[in-house]
Amino acid sequence: MKQLTKAEEEVMQILWQLEKANVAAMIEELPEPKPAYNTVSTIVRILESKGFVDHEQEGRGHIYFPLVKKGDYSNQSINKLVDGYFQGSFKSMVSFFMKKNDMSLSELESILKDIKKDGKT
After folding, report:
1. Is residue 60 within 8 Å of 52, Cβ to Cβ?
2. Which spans in the chain are helix H?
3. 49-94, pLDDT tens digit by residue?
4. In the chain, is it the N or the C terminus that has fewer CB atoms within a 10 Å radius of its CB?
5. Does the bond joining 33 to the residue before it have cis omega, within 30 degrees of 0?
6. Which is it for the CA torsion 99, 101, 103, 107, positive or negative?
7. pLDDT over 60 (residue 19)
8. What secondary structure letter does DSSP report for 21?
């Protein structure tokens, strides 16, 4: 799976949220200052060429929808982060974020409890 630029990822976040949308609807969800219609349209076409998005015809326009699930992209991005910066070690990554965010042991225990709970469902 290809990596997305920041602008492409921002548009994908909107599309994952909306599930289906035309360019105008995507622009409405973007923060101020709103990008130009042509800018978002170009980004969507790039996402389509990368295999992240497809469209269906609606009248004279297009309705776009994601082909890649948000969870699949998130997993790939996290794995790339872990491989690139932490030599493939999730333990190193967790340790790094604990130190950088001054996380307490009780916060870590709470996270571990949530992980165990999610693993049972």
Report:
1. no
2. 6-18, 23-29, 37-49, 70-86, 90-100, 105-120
3. 999 999 999 999 999 999 999 999 988 888 888 898 899 888 888 8
4. C
5. yes
6. negative
7. yes
8. B
| DSSP-assigned beta bridge partners for residue 64 | 21, 55
Six-digit token string for 85: 């910066």
The answer to whether 93 and 82 have CB atoms below 8 angstroms apart is yes
Q: Any idea which residue has 């609606």 for tokens?
A: 58
Q: Apex CA 43: angle with CA 41 and CA 45, to 5°?
A: 70
Strand partners, 63: 56
pLDDT at site 121: 47
Tell me how crowded residue 43 is: count the other CB atoms within 10 A of its CB.
22
Express as a percent the part of the chain with pLDDT over 70. 98
pTM: 0.73
- Higher local confidence (pLDDT), 67 or 98: 67
Structure-block tokens of residue 115: 């992980």
Q: Are 37 and 27 in contact (CB under 8 A)?
A: yes
Residue with tokens 């693993």: 119
